[in-house]
């Protein structure tokens, strides 16, 4: 198990190195002169000002030196300064991080907390009207774009019924964005759980468990659930990536003061250091999450962890 | 078999699949009995209904399968009319099952120990410690070395033969009266097959457990079975004691089946040439196109018009030998 974790951490490190390289080179992928475009927002800069900015951003150095400077600064926790507001990027991101985490994990909790039991139930009642209804609901959940769902929820629960606030900072204002975010991924997880459970139900070892005379509850929870979880856990890793992306959209719909809103602002203002920092942070979060899920996967499946 | 009492008595078991116009009958009134401590082999080609018979006894038919009639008496209880709760109590405790494929029949994410102890905890109300001690004894009984280590291992860490030994240990856990072994050696290497057969013979000897052996392998049958029931297209067509059946089969299908077993000891008369392996022409009819007659008619060398029209009943030739054939037992 330790070896498995170490190996997994090593590949995660490589992923992060590649991400940091791509992020560092991002600025060169932008068509035209990024510095001119950044500065053109305010006034027409003089060539001296442009050169000074280029020097400040280190863009006048050879590419490999730029990368090593970039990584060197990253390792000391310096992600550069925002062009607008000139605050450290790290500080700006860290301020917003808890809000986004709260939203993403609330969404994930809804997605898993409802998606898995619903999928489990649908599989157990396969072919019944309840199964058909749940799966129709799941298709709807996957198909509906989350910005539209968010607006509809606001219309119903905030405007018409007046139960929940449209926007704000407290837990009550988190309910609607978390539900919006959760529903899509709940549908994906419900469908995955259902098909994984149905597959496991047809396995020989389930027949063995029944032949042993175990009650259906033990057959379900001890024998079927864990093998089914293995494939569901892999999906949760993918879902989490989408969920973080979805959070960017949902935060903007609900004016939730998280990273997503910051990112959209940064993009609007072409605040490249901030965009770079945002992408790198998201990449790191997703890499860390996928390492944690792989460890969970290995824990669930002894065929991986026991060598 | 002197003064043996019936353990299992199956009468007229009929199983259908599907519903409405697509309904087909897979078992046509199968009847046989099994005495305490006896090994009865249920022999037939794939699709003859051997495994279905076993699954019906266990109440484990797939959802499309339906018992349309008959009785499965275990002692004085009819397993077919038992409540679900009682059936769960019977399974694993009084009747248990060893499946064909030990790789997929054990749960890959539970340790061998857990899979052995859970039945004991549920059926016998054993404590963890007691169940563990019993599980260790069982692993020793089925001839596994280092039982403590095996307890902690997962199925994928064991070889095929070891897994089948674990399956057998699991089946024995609650000291059942009857073990149904569905092709217990088919998925194993030949050398391992012999070991598993020896193990099952040894267990039968030591514990007196009755075995319903389901197989198409007549070699296994010859080594293990006291009696043999031959199944063809969902009908029992001949039952006899092993030796009788091998020496004097009466049903033309049984004859064909035995003639199709490769033998190295029989030579063509007056030469040193080996006899060419016989084959049964044709194949088992699909359950969907059955007639009222004997299903073997199209392949039968001695069939008459009556065979095609009417299914012959099981007719006793002597106390231990019955056959369903108009020509051989009119």
UniProtKB/TrEMBL annotation, chain A:
<dbReference type="Pfam" id="PF19300">
    <property type="entry name" value="BPD_transp_1_N"/>
</dbReference>
<keyword id="KW-1003">Cell membrane</keyword>
<dbReference type="InterPro" id="IPR035906">
    <property type="entry name" value="MetI-like_sf"/>
</dbReference>
<keyword id="KW-0472">Membrane</keyword>
<feature type="transmembrane region" description="Helical">
    <location>
        <begin position="171"/>
        <end position="190"/>
    </location>
</feature>
<keyword id="KW-0813">Transport</keyword>
<comment type="similarity">
    <text>Belongs to the binding-protein-dependent transport system permease family.</text>
</comment>
<feature type="transmembrane region" description="Helical">
    <location>
        <begin position="9"/>
        <end position="30"/>
    </location>
</feature>
<keyword id="KW-0812">Transmembrane</keyword>
<dbReference type="GO" id="GO:0005886">
    <property type="term" value="C:plasma membrane"/>
</dbReference>
<dbReference type="InterPro" id="IPR045621">
    <property type="entry name" value="BPD_transp_1_N"/>
</dbReference>
<feature type="domain" description="ABC transmembrane type-1">
    <location>
        <begin position="97"/>
        <end position="297"/>
    </location>
</feature>
<feature type="transmembrane region" description="Helical">
    <location>
        <begin position="274"/>
        <end position="300"/>
    </location>
</feature>
<dbReference type="InterPro" id="IPR000515">
    <property type="entry name" value="MetI-like"/>
</dbReference>
<feature type="transmembrane region" description="Helical">
    <location>
        <begin position="101"/>
        <end position="124"/>
    </location>
</feature>
<feature type="transmembrane region" description="Helical">
    <location>
        <begin position="136"/>
        <end position="159"/>
    </location>
</feature>
<protein>
    <submittedName>
        <fullName>ABC transporter permease</fullName>
    </submittedName>
</protein>
<feature type="transmembrane region" description="Helical">
    <location>
        <begin position="228"/>
        <end position="254"/>
    </location>
</feature>
<keyword id="KW-1133">Transmembrane helix</keyword>
<dbReference type="GO" id="GO:0071916">
    <property type="term" value="F:dipeptide transmembrane transporter activity"/>
</dbReference>
<dbReference type="Pfam" id="PF00528">
    <property type="entry name" value="BPD_transp_1"/>
</dbReference>
């Amino acid at each position: 198990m330790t070896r498995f974790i170490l190996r997994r951490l090593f590949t995660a490190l490589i992923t992060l190195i590649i991400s940091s390289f791509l992020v560092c080179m991002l600025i060169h992928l932008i068509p035209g002169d990024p510095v001119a475009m950044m500065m053109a927002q305010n006034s027409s800069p003089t060539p001296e000002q442009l050169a000074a900015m280029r020097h400040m951003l280190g863009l006048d150095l050879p590419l490999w030196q730029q990368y090593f400077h970039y990584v060197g600064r990253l390792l000391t926790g310096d992600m550069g300064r925002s062009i607008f507001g000139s605050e450290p990027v790290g500080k700006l991101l860290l301020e917003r991080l808890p809000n986004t985490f709260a939203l993403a994990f609330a969404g994930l909790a809804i997605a898993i907390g409802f998606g898995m039991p619903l999928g489990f139930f649908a599989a157990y009642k396969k072919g019944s009207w309840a199964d058909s209804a749940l799966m129709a609901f799941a298709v709807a959940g996957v198909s509906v774009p989350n910005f539209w769902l968010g607006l509809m929820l606001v219309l119903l629960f905030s405007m018409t019924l007046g139960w929940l606030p449209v926007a704000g900072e407290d837990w009550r204002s988190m309910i609607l964005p978390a539900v919006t975010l959760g529903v899509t991924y709940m549908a994906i997880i419900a469908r995955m759980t259902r098909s994984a459970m149905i597959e496991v139900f047809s396995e020989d070892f389930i027949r063995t468990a029944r032949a042993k005379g175990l009650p259906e509850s033990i057959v379900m929870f001890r024998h079927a659930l864990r093998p089914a979880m293995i494939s569901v856990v892999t999906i949760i890793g993918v879902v989490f990536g989408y969920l973080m992306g979805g959070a960017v959209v949902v935060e903007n719909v609900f004016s939730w003061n998280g990273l997503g809103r910051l990112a959209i602002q940064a993009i609007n203002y072409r605040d490249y250091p901030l965009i770079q920092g945002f992408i790198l942070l998201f990449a790191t979060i997703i890499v860390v999450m996928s390492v944690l899920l792989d460890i969970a996967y290995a824990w669930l499946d002894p065929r991986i962890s026991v060598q | 078999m002197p003064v043996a009492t019936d353990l299992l008595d199956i009468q007229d078991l009929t199983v259908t699949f599907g519903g409405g116009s697509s309904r087909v009958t897979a078992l046509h009134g199968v009847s046989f009995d099994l005495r305490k401590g006896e090994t009865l082999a249920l022999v037939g080609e794939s699709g003859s209904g051997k495994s279905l018979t076993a699954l019906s006894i266990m109440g484990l038919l797939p959802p499309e399968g339906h018992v349309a009639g008959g009785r499965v008496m275990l002692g004085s209880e009819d397993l077919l009319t038992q409540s679900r709760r009682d059936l769960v109590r019977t399974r694993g405790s009084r009747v248990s099952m060893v499946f064909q494929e030990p790789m997929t029949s054990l749960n890959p994410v539970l340790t061998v120990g857990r899979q052995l102890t859970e039945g004991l905890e549920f059926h016998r109300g054993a404590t963890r410690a007691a169940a563990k001690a019993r599980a260790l004894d069982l692993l020793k009984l089925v001839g596994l070395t280092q039982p403590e280590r095996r307890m902690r291992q997962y199925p994928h860490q064991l070889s095929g033969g070891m897994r089948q030994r674990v399956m057998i240990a699991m089946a024995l856990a609650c000291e059942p009266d009857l073990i149904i072994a569905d092709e217990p050696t088919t998925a194993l290497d030949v050398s391992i097959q012999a070991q598993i057969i020896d193990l099952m013979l040894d267990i039968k000897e030591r514990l007196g457990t009755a075995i319903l052996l389901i197989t198409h392998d007549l070699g296994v049958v010859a080594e293990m079975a006291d009696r043999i029931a031959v199944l063809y297209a969902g009908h029992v067509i001949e039952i006899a004691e092993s030796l009788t059946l091998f020496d004097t089969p009466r049903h033309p299908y049984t004859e064909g089946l035995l003639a199709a077993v490769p033998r190295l000891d029989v030579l063509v008369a007056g030469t040193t040439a080996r006899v060419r392996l016989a084959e049964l022409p044709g194949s088992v009819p699909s359950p969907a196109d059955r007639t009222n007659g004997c299903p073997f008619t199209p392949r039968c060398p001695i069939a008459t018009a009556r065979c095609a029209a009417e299914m012959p009943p099981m007719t006793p030739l002597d106390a231990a030998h019955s056959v369903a054939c108009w020509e051989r037992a009119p």
